[in-house]
Amino acid sequence: MPELTSTYVDSLAPNAAAIKNGQGLVRKKSFVELHQSENGELLFGKCAGSGKTPYECSVDFIAADIPVFRCTCPSRQFPCKHALGLLYAYTEGQTFTAAPVPEDIASKREKAEKREENKVKQAAEGVEPKPKKVNKSALKKKITAQLEGLDLLEKLVLSFVRGGLSTMDRSAVKTIQEHVKQLGNYYLSGAQIELRRFSNLMFGGKDQEQNYTYAMEQLTRLHAFIKKGRAYLQARSEDPELALDHESTIDEWLGHAWQLSELKEYGLVKEGAELLQLAFYSFNDAARLEFVDMGYWLDLSAEGGGIHRTFNYRPYKAAKLMREEDSYFEVAVVPQLYTYPGEMNARIRYEAVTPRQVQGTDLQRAAAQAHRSYTEAVKKVKNQIKNPLSDKQPVMLLHAATLGVTENGQYVMTDEEGTRLLLEDLPSVPQGTVELLPFLPAAAREDCYILVMFEHNLDQGRLRAQPLTVIKDEEMIRLLY
C-alpha cells in the first residue's frame, strides 16, 4: 500500500466538492465501523447515510498503484465521498481494527486474480489474442453513411465560401447547429466538433475582422478534412480489411475512439517509461462541450523521447461526477505507455503509475533533449502547422543562452547562434505567463531551458511563442500549472 497522506487522497478525488464532503464525513463521525485487513492492503468500514442501513465502503490496495474503490451507495461519482472519507479517516490517525477480508471482496479478488493469471499464462505460451473480426456489412454501411455526411458538410462549407463570411448573420448559427446535429447521424463526431468550432470562431468574439481570419482558417481545415476523409473512406470501402491509419489523425477526425488494444496491435505501446510533467492547464472547450485537462510530459526513458500530451475530457453533463486532473510534480513511472497517432506532441495514455521524487539527474536528462538551434526548431514547427489537420499549438523545449528584454520592453530569448525568439502571451492559452518573467531569479535567465508553445498569428503572418516552464540546473520553475 502506498503512503497515505491527505495530499495523496486529494489527488484521487474527482473534484473539490468530493474532498470537502469526504472530510465532512470524518468530522461528523459518520463512520460507525473502521477496519483493515491484517496485511493492511484493504481498508473497509460502514458509514451512516440517509437510510437506516449504513453504506459499506472499501478501498483495496492489493495492486498498490491502482486502488479499487467499492461502495454500496447509489452515487455515480467515483470514487464516492464515503470511500474518500474512509481514506481521510486513516490519514487522520483514527483507529482501524484488524478484521478478516469480507467474503464478497475476497470473491471479487479471486476472480480478478484468475483473469490476470490467464493473461500471464497466455503471454508466456505466446498465445496471441484472437483478432477482432470485421463485420464487413456493418462497416460498409457505416462508411456509406460517413461519405454521405461528408457530402453534406462539403455543400455547407462551399456555400459559406461562395457567399462570403461577411454575408453570414446570426441566422447562420441555426443552420450550422442543424448540420452539427445531422453529422452525428452520419457517424462523424469529429466533424461535429470542428463545425461547432467554426461557429464559435465566427460568432464568439468581439473583433469581427479577427473572427473572419480564424474562421476562414477553420473552413480550410474542414475542406482539407473532407478531401482526405473521403479518399480514406473510399479506400476502406473497397478493402474492408484495410488497417486503420495509425500514423495520422484522420481516424480521430472521423470520430474513431482508439482503444488501448488497438494501439497495442499497431505497436504503439512502450514497456517501462518515466515521464516528467513540464506544464499543465485546464480549459473549457466549447466546441467539444467538455472541460479539458491537458498536461505536457517529457519522456525521460528514451533519448529524444519527445514531449507528449495527456488529455482528460469531462463532458459538461458529467463534469461533476468525474475526476478533474491536476498538476503532477513527481516523476511518473509507467509500466505501459500508449501513444496515439499524431505528429509533434502526440497524445499518450497510461493505466497505472508509480510516483517517485524528481531528482537533479531527471532535469539534466530533460535538458539534454532541448533544441539548441531556433532556426531548426522554427522550421520543424512550420512543417507541423502546414498540415491543415495538425495541432496548431506545438510545444518544444528550447535552450536559451540568454533571456532578456529588448529596447521596447519585450522579452526575448536568444540561442547560442544569436537568433532571437520574441516571447508573448497567446490568445489560445487561458493564462498569461510573460508577466511572470520579471520574477525569475537573475541566474535562471542565462544558460537555461524554456518550454515554449508556438502559434501562427494569421493576421500578422508570423509565429508567436509563449513560455510555459523554465529549467535551470536542478530547478524547474513552472509558469503554467
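the 2nd protein, sequnce then structure:
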Amino acid sequence: MADTFTIHLKIWRQDGPDQPGKLVDYTLDKVNEHMSFLEMLDVLNEEIVAEGKEEPIEFDYDCREGICGSCNLVINGQAHGPKDMTCTCQLHMRNFSDGDTIVIEPFRSKAFPVIKDLVVDRSAFDRIIEAGGYVSVKTGSAPDANSIPIDKTVADTAFDYATCIGCGACVAACPNSSASLFTGAKLAHLNRLPQGEPERKKRTVSMVEQMEEEGFGDCSNYAECEAVCPKGISISAIAEMRRNYVKATLAGTEA
C-alpha cells in the first residue's frame, strides 16, 4: 500500500434531533495510512471549512487514546470499525485501501438520540450509573492499602469488568439496542468486591430498572455486544446481572 491514497466517504449529516438526516458523499485525497480515523475526519473538516460551503462534520471525541469512550462511530456497519478490540480513535487508515468507500454513521438507538451529525446523547448511561453505580463509604482519609483482603481471582475479574469505558458500542451492535453488557459490567465490577456487598441487591435492582426506564431493549443473547466491545468484556456479565436481579427481587432489596 502506498503511503497516501484516496477514499470515498458517505457520512451521516443531521442538523438536530428533530431534523431529517441523510448520507452525504465526500472524497478525500492524499489520506496518509498512518492517520487515525479521527485525524482523517479532522483533515476532511479542514477542507470543508476552507471551501466555506457547509458546516464541518460534528463528531465526538476526547482523549483519543481509547480510554474515554467518546469516539462512538459506526463504520461500514460495525461499531468502532473493522478492527477487533479497538476504539474508533485508535483505528488507523492503514486498515483501509485506495478507492475504498467508507460509510460513517452515529450509534443508533432510541435511548441515544442524535444531537447533530455523528454526535449522540449518551446521558442515559449516566443515569444508570446514578441509580446505583457506586459504593457508600465514610468520608475521611483513605483506608490503608490491603486493609480488606480480596482474593486475586475476584479482584482480577472485577477489574476486567471495570475496564468498560461506557462507549455504547454494545448498544449500537445489539439488534435490540440493549444496554445489558454495559449495565452488567458496571454491576459485576462492584458486586464482586466486598466494598460493594452491602448495597448489592439494591444496586442491582435500581440499575436494571433504570436501564429499562431509559428505553433500551432486552438482551436476546446474540452476543454482538461482546464482539464489538473495545475492551473485550464477556457477556458473562449479563448472566451475572440476571442472576443477581432475580435473587434481589425475590429476597427484597433492603440493603
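Residues 236-251 form the longest helix (16 residues). Residues 122-251 form a domain with the Fumarate Reductase Iron-sulfur Protein; Chain B, domain 2 fold (CATH 1.10.1060.10).
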